[in-house]
């Protein structure tokens, strides 16, 4: 199928850029040292490509992602890097033969893991972002509690999410060092082989983790590009121009394409369109001022500001090379 | 099933508030004068309730919505209030017996409607928001062109989207009057029975349309509540507290629930939580400071800032009364 035959809006992935991104991250973090985060693409077919590049384990954010990865035969070592209280579904995945490790940071989440049939955990440590994770000085006691509950404590995790898109790379590296000092202090109390953390934005300045949880590098978005992380924009939302308004005395020229805020994660702001200024998005439309005139029926490639919530809106993504659709992948890890 | 048995995050709809909202709008716009917009809820089961309150026709924003409504037996009079160039799927819906009217605003969209087997159109008129829609003075010529192409022109539509949440109600009414003056001028040139427009925010100050396209009133969001439109918040995203951090010298107390930006439309900003201050959202979490202490495992009800893109993330919504789940509805009109 040709790109022109796709109904829009449609997620399209440039095959060459994707492959280059996967190869570059795998070169920096080879084999088991990379634990790609599937929340950024929610697509088992893409995860299989990451496995082909050497990844053994994967990071998940939801129970659905864990279930889907296991069902796709990618369950050799799944980390649910998130706290959960209802662990029954995870227990079933374990019983079916997948290896599932869950983040815990409280007596309640430890009890839930043990009660649900989960066998392995990481102690989740707050390394500076006010979200989940215990304080470093609590980590040792939580690890002891988990072991008493019959769980194997594989080590620690700590996500420096607040630093991923820090503008200045040197300051980002310094702050990552500080954050990982907290994580290493916790690890000294917890033990185990695993220090898990990091993301695309700190993947070049975080040598302290034993496994890197990067996800966005595969597809990328304009926020990470602006942060200078060095991966190619592989993902676009393909749209069709449905309206053109020529310049008039009371209004400059603008055009409208069928890529709206239900096709884009909007928490990082408007998307960008190369060769145009984006004015605003509404449910099913983006209004933009193109540098050069466009016509109704033209196609446009829209760059999302945040890849993860963009992908989560779409049922499928199309792998494309030279305007040909090579494969169509189901975004099969959506929902909860 | 009890509310406490729902896995989270989950869309929950208060049955009493929904019913009150549907009744109130149907009282103001009875029978055919209300053409509810399904883009706000994407749920045929909810549309059936709107039909039970007297609605005959419905407004859609996507081809998928048209197809799904027709398949659910709700295709007596469907308006696709959006420009489309690939009309083949719409033609099939018409051939299968549904009545489908499509918005057109250019020679290209008229040609597409005629070529695709669509028989009826409205001329879409720009009434002040730079999106789709022709200029009022172009409407007559476009109508003639559509008739020459063999299409029935039922009238005009014009959506004053930029006024829906205008803060001052009197100014909103005055600006709506101005916008509808443009639409009525176009209608005078176009003819036909239909003047379609409006939304929840202008439903009390737009007496000029023959059919009101309101959608958000059924479920509501914090943006429309702030605009004082007078409908009840029927929709919440139910979450579970997964982490609690007590007050410390360097950080006030906060909690984290499993309702993140993949469960919420974020283009209107952060959600709200009654009895708490929301700090920020990440993919699967909301971090908030509760007025009164909460515990891990507690449930929270999160109010989205924008209902439409919130619903579009969810596979189902649960109709709830007195903490009992009465029905579970598939959000079956998602995607394109």
Would you mind describing this structure in some detail?
Chains A, B: Its EC number is 5.1.1.1. Chains A, B: It is an enzyme of class 5 (isomerase). Chains A, B: Belongs to the DSD1 family. Chains A, B: GO terms for molecular function: alanine racemase activity. 2 copies of one chain form a homodimer. With 336 residues, the first copy, chain A, is an alpha/beta fold. Chain A folds into 2 domains: 3-10 and 232-330, D-serine dehydratase-like domain (Lyase, Ornithine Decarboxylase, Chain A, domain 1); 15-218, Alanine racemase (TIM Barrel, Alpha-Beta Barrel). In chain A, 28% of the residues lie in helices and 24% in strands. In chain A, helix 7 links the parallel strand 6 (152-158) and strand 7. In chain A, helix 6 (136-148) runs parallel beside helix 7 (169-190). The model of chain A has no long low-confidence stretch (mean pLDDT 97). At the A-B interface, strand 9 and strand 11 of A face strand 9 and strand 11 of B.
Number of domains of chain A: 2
Unreliable stretches of chain A? none
State the helical fraction of chain A.
25-40%
User: How would you describe the shape of chain A?
Assistant: elongated
Percent strand of chain A equals 15-25%
CATH class of the largest domain in chain A: Alpha Beta
| Oligomeric state | homodimer
For the largest interface, the chains and their residue counts are: A-B, 54 and 54 residues
CATH fold category name of the largest domain in chain A: TIM Barrel
Please tally the helical runs of chain A, counting DSSP H or I stretches of 4 or more residues: 9
